[in-house]
Amino acid sequence: MEEQPTSLPEKAAPHPPAPSRRLAFARQELRLISSLVLLIGLGLFLALPFVLSIGAVVFLPVVTALVLTVILSPLADRLNGWGLPNAIASLIALLVFFAVLLLALALILQPAIALFDDVPAMVNQTIERFGELQRRFAWVAQINQQLADLMQREGGREVVLASPSLLEELAFATPGLVLETVLTLLMAYFMIEARIRLRQRLLFGRANFGTSIKAARVMREVQDRVASYILTVGWINTMVGVVVALGAWALGIEAPIMWGGLAALLNFLPYIGPIVMVTLLGLFGIGTADTILLGLVPALAYLALHTVEANVITPSILGARFTMNPVLILIALSYFSWIWGVFGALLSVPILLMLTALFDHVGRPNLVGFIFGEPLFGQEILAGGEDSPTE
Question: What span, in angstroms and rounded, lies between the C-alpha atoms of 120 and 116?
Fold first, then answer.
């Protein structure tokens, strides 16, 4: 008899290999941790303005001193390389910055004080010019009045609250400002003086040599990027100030050095500073010229200069290394201006440069891709990558 062939048992469905399961679990765990990190970062971003604004007396000098340390450390290193002791090199670097700041303020404040007596006359002439415009466009006011009558709006009473005068505000603000300035300069000096010890700790205080090299590289990149940006933009703004001063002198505007110094300082504030400068030149020109069109000539000339400088000269000098997203610049300006006012606006771009240099080494978060299931950071954290298909 022929033997019947025995039927083989059915093969069970293949289970995924253990390494693949472990890799999938690790990716889920990483995504959960990334979600927590993202939520914590968002919470800190929303909570920091309230903490930093309330503690501005403490945090503003610290942040300002940190930015000054990053900017002035290359100068202190250069002086230290010439044979000067570290303490003396740090002090000279800080004194150079303070002297440049005082010189810039003197170039602006001294002519401004001389022009202070002419302000009432310029204000009256500006009011007259705008009065002429108002009379020319009186039909717009009549339309507004008719609309108000149709909606039966009643005029409310105007309540005027007594506020302290300018001299009283200056008297109250001066002691605090002097104290914060002294604290900032002292902290900046000690931070600059301690930069060498900090580098040594970063290099030799880590258990892993690769981590030490990476930390030192990040610190050097942040310092070089911010210092190079501030130095380059400072030279560009100085040239802008010289051109504005020469143009003001050619147009016969009083105190041309003041206008040049003001243009140089305001040009450190992207977008906001030039708008303020155009407004000031427009109001001053209208208040001193015979006609409105002649009064607008200085503002239009500065606007043309700024257009060429911002779109041709500065991008060609700075290059792609310092190119930043204009949206990020405006967000940083509004964010830090909300926290610390004018000082926050001045510190916003250096802080943004420091964060950009840091994220270039650590990795920039992929926020949009993370929503659709991609990793939060572009570089793969898990080793191994995709499994090859089994044969």
Answer: 8
Choice between 166 and 375, residue whose per-residue pLDDT is larger: 375
C-alpha 1/C-alpha 92 separation (Å) is 110
Interhelix angle 56-81/86-114, rounded to 10 degrees, is 120
3-state class (DSSP) for residue 303: helix
Helix axes 297-308, 209-250, angle to 10 degrees: 150
- Per-residue CA distances from 109 to 54, 113, 114, 342 (Å): 31, 6, 9, 17
* Residue 32 identity (one-letter amino acid): L
Residue 219: the pLDDT is 79
Q: Which of 61, 63, 41 is nearest to 351 (CA)?
A: 63
- The amino acid at residue 340 is W
Alpha-carbon gap, residue 179 to 172, rounded angstroms: 12
Helices (H), 12-85: 18-54, 56-81
Q: Which pair of tokens denotes residue 313?
A: 């000269």
C-alpha distances (whole Å) from 309 to each of 122, 296, 314 are 30, 20, 6
CA 100, CA 375: separation in Å to the nearest integer? 47
CA–CA dist 144, 14 (Å, integer): 80
Give the residue carrying structure tokens 């041709």: 312
- What pLDDT, in 10s, does the model give residues 302-328? 999 999 988 888 888 876 666 677 788
Helix (H) or strand (E) holding 149: helix 138-150
DSSP characters over 160-214: ------HHHHHHHHHHHHHHHHHHHHHHHHHHHHTHHHHHHHHHHS-SSHHHHHH
Asked whether the beta carbons of 198 and 76 are under 8 A apart, the reply is no
DSSP secondary structure code for residue 312 in this structure: I
325 three-class SS: coil
User: What's this model's pTM, rounded to 2 decimal places?
Assistant: 0.69
Q: How far is residue 120's CA from residue 117's CA, in Å, rounded to a whole number?
A: 7
How many whole angstroms separate alpha carbon 252 and alpha carbon 255? Answer: 9
Structure tokens at 174: 């001066």
Backbone φ and ψ for 365, nearest 5 degrees, come out as -70, 135
Cα separation of 7 and 30, whole Å? 47
367-377 burial string, b = 16+ CB within 10 Å, else e?
A: eeebeeeebbb
CA distance 255 to 43: 49
**Cα 154 to the chain's mean position, in Å?**
45
